[in-house]
Amino acid sequence: MPISDVQVVVIGGGAAGVAAARRLEQASVRCLIVEARPRLGGRAWTVSDANGFTLDLGCGWLHSADRNPWVSVAQELGFSIDKTPPPWMNRPLESSFSRVEHGKFREAFQTFYARLDEAAQGEADAPASSLLDPGNRWNPLLNAMSTYISGAELDRVSLKDLDRYHSTDINWRVLEGYGTLIGAYGAKAPAMLDCPVRAIDHSGKRLSIETGNGAIAADQAIVTVPSAILAAERIQFIPALPEKIHAARGLPLGLADKLFISLDGAEEFSTSVRLFAHTDRAATAGYHIRPFGRPMIEAYFGGRLAADLEAGGDRAFFDFAAAELADALGSRFARRIKPIAVHRWGSDPFALGSYSFASPGLADCRAKLAEPVDDRLFFAGEACSRHDFSTAHGGYLTGVAAAEQVIAARSTSRSSAGRSPSA
Ligand SMILES: Cc1cc2nc3c(=O)[nH]c(=O)nc-3n(C[C@H](O)[C@H](O)[C@H](O)COP(=O)(O)OP(=O)(O)OC[C@H]3O[C@@H](n4cnc5c(N)ncnc54)[C@H](O)[C@@H]3O)c2cc1C
What we know:
This protein is 33% helix and 20% strand. The protein contains twelve helices and 20 strands.
């Protein structure tokens, strides 16, 4: 079968696309990943620094690791899993956040999530910020957490959707990088890279996938591009699918960006320490000192802060972090740090953001986005996941689910084609 004529085209080669393609291959369905970037992985992207340390610019944590399918993929491919507890499970650096104050914050955090659980049982949805205790001293920090968790402040986030997220609170990492892992799993699937899809024409008997390198005919397609790409109509559906676009618009991508910083004299700190520079504002970064024991700091910026810094360019992230670290650790600290790498996911033309949240009132858009169209167009990607959205394992699970739907649809159409008209 020529490459311009396949059974199933998988649009996008991130976690969902790679998982879908591998599942289709297992079922002997000939598929092709068509990926806009020159690499697989999408929002899973590992680069190396000058010392050969792997840096995950996108996803880094195997969240819900005890039920995360990427863990068995990692084991199968011989990757090393690091089970050091994540910094947010440790007490933060005492000088940045006293034990007593941190205890009070944890209490406020738990109270907020208990309220969320209760409110989510009701009929009505609302912004998660409606559950904040007015005037509470910890509201700004709860909002900062929301920018790391959802990529957006609580006023933009549906409380029902936030409550639907399931976590087992087991979080591991892959030493070689989460992006390396997903790319390696995808390497066995046929893929066309550097090949953005511009349109999907589903008006004819077969699909025509219009790409930068010409059209590809296919029986079916699994669309795994980020919800923000669909919402911005970077891919045109012919005929149009206004309900899909509406669903994608209900699931905007929040913004979270990472900056890696080298640190001289890192041994002063123990491994995997968390530092809070400010506890009285939402516009503050999260700092993870010595991830994997390495001489570096992983800084995490979310929400409106990340959007403002993206507008200022890469250097703005380092300048902001240097100023915050100086506030927390003294002005001489700035001499010990240098920027290594950052990626601006909001400005990334094939992501347009970091991970999805649902706007208030629109939590059910996840199910609507995931619905197939005419048993020919299938949808996957983290935004389609009811309980594991915003994650790479959510991407995997939706990719496999869409592949299963394709397999089922193909076997139904085969059996009805095989039936004789008189039967
Ligand atoms: C900074 C950051 C930190 C994160 N941390 C974590 C974490 O610790 N743990 C975790 O589980 N998750 C984390 N995530 C989220 C995780 O990376 C994503 O949820 C997951 O990778 C999404 O996979 P996906 O397949 O749904 O989408 P994507 O990975 O975005 O894949 C979609 C693919 O479609 C491609 N594409 C786009 N447009 C086109 C087009 N027109 N034609 C063809 N291809 C196209 C894209 O290039 C991309 O490769 C993080 C994300 C970011 C940005």
